[in-house]
């Protein structure tokens, strides 16, 4: 009897040592961090995904905006959070593909410090100019104007993808312009509309609402193909910038060493959310395409894009800061 009681006591102690999250996850609200400001294109997508995850998981998913350093602040917070599944990262390819080439030293390791959950969407960027402050209607016209007065004109970037998009344009088109970095795309868009910037490469999710308002014009998209939502806007390659092809993605990560059960629960819920017709319609309406995928898919796309973005950044002559 004493042996049975001792065994039972040991079993209960072991069970208590196993995080409740692994068995019952989630039992309380989940905190989703995003390294970009409210109102940005990725913020709109993150909020839709958070709402969908709430229904699937049965617990609130609270989105917390922590903008700064091209998404690194939020990523670093998640990397150092308790690996219990209650702090997750919603992020674009910036933090897990581009930033390793843009910064001499990151405060986190994009591979070792994270556990992939799944992919959400793919999207390109849109080259925008102000409707009120410029008569430019094509990429060829913009390129000609920039070449006439090297160094005179400025352009804005609100994230790593937008920055690389502009630098790649400068390299392939052979133009000299001044980059003005912002903490997010919305403030860059404000300055573009106000005539303080000549052009901006904005994520399609934020560009489309502005295009509907008529205060900006789309000259081209950055991907290899035209998105469903902008069928009349040419690609950069079609517009004359040969060899131009740049697109991004959104995904969700956990801190490294989170319980496998938590990873599976989150990944399953995320896949269901992204695979719904409603989510597909929402994403396509704002210029993105659904990209449902699991942990292996996210790990693979991050690995491939890290190499791809490294080549693009080096070709653009960008140096790590």
From TrEMBL:
Gene3D superfamilies: Bordetella uptake gene, domain 1 (3.40.190.150), Periplasmic binding protein-like II (3.40.190.10)
Keywords: Receptor, Signal
InterPro entries given in the database record: BUG (IPR005064), Bug_dom1 (IPR042100)
Pfam families: TctC
Transmembrane segments: none
Annotated signal sequence range: 1-22
Family to which this protein belongs: Belongs to the UPF0065 (bug) family.
Entry protein name: Tripartite tricarboxylate transporter family receptor
Species annotation: Pigmentiphaga humi
Lineage: Bacteria, Pseudomonadati, Pseudomonadota, Betaproteobacteria, Burkholderiales
